[in-house]
Amino acid sequence: MSNIKEHIVLKVKELSIGYKTKKVETVVASNLNFDLQQGQLIGLVGANGIGKSTLLRTLTKVQNPLNGNITINGKEIQKLSTIDLAKQLSLVLTEPLVAKNLSVYELVALGRQPYTNWIGNLSPKDQSIINVALEQTNILDLKDKKCYELSDGQLQKVMIARALAQDTDLIILDEPTTHLDMYHKAYVLKLLKQLTKTTNKTILFSSHEIDLAIQLCDTMIVMSKDNVQCNTPKQLISNGTFEKLFPQDLITFNDKTGSFRVSK
Ligand SMILES: Nc1ncnc2c1ncn2[C@@H]1O[C@H](COP(=O)(O)OP(=O)(O)OP(=O)(O)O)[C@@H](O)[C@H]1O
């Protein structure tokens, strides 16, 4: 029996997500229930338009839930101020960076904002945390470069370093592998996996790289029209979850190799 006590970082209970105007409520997914454990890598997958970004936006309080409850380390996110939430979770988006004129070091330093004074002065502790984040993402050699000089793969590592510098238990990334080649997709996801082990942080990312996620994730959240399942990749494979993800006339899932193939 394991002596390691599991700690739930994120708890989602009876959650409904979607969009609400004065007249209409559009439910994207409902009845979501899952717990994310400390130190795990969790991949969120599902077809285009199924609701992955909507779910991540709701978990990060960018939009309100239609119903239900989200807690981080036992605290309801709806009750947390912006600054307190920024000490619990950091968010990495793939949208083009507005601050490309900053150096890599300056951009990673932005992760310390929830902790610095209003002028943004960095204490020796802040500087040490920034250096560790640069080391952990293997970008120390890039620290004086301007962000506009970087490739997409390098920039993704910088954004991950910024999230690490924010020093939160939970890091959430929306499609961190977009725009990356096969090597860099694998590199970034493997880096995230290593970081969960070396830092004990919980990292949740959405992706269309289902094959890679199956290989690397401790847990996966699979969104489909019928339901949302959260389990280990192994259990999801034996439940036949991936087979039902796409129309089988075009794509089939091989449960022996854990990968998809185009039907001939
Ligand atoms: N601002 C919005 N207002 C109303 N409906 C929206 C809005 N944004 C997205 N939707 C709808 O919500 C549903 C889920 O979209 P979402 O972007 O969350 O899916 P996704 O799984 O992230 O897709 P993709 O993999 O293509 O990025 C879609 O039907 C979409 O049209």
UniProtKB/TrEMBL annotation:
Among its keywords, does the record have Iron? Answer: yes
Where is this protein primarily located? membrane
Query: Which domain of life does this protein belong to?
Result: Bacteria
Q: Which InterPro entries match?
A: AAA+_ATPase, ABC_transporter-like_ATP-bd, P-loop_NTPase, Siderophore_ABC-ATPase
Q: How does it sit in the membrane?
A: Peripheral membrane protein
Q: Cross-referenced Gene3D superfamilies, in alphabetical order? A: P-loop containing nucleotide triphosphate hydrolases
Every copy of the ABC transporter domain together lies at: 12-250
Tell me which CDD domains the record gives: ABC_Iron-Siderophores_B12_Hemin
The protein's matches in PROSITE patterns, at most eight in alphabetical order, are given as:
ABC_TRANSPORTER_2
Protein name as annotated: ABC transporter ATP-binding protein
**Naturally occurring in which organism (per UniProt):** Winogradskyella immobilis
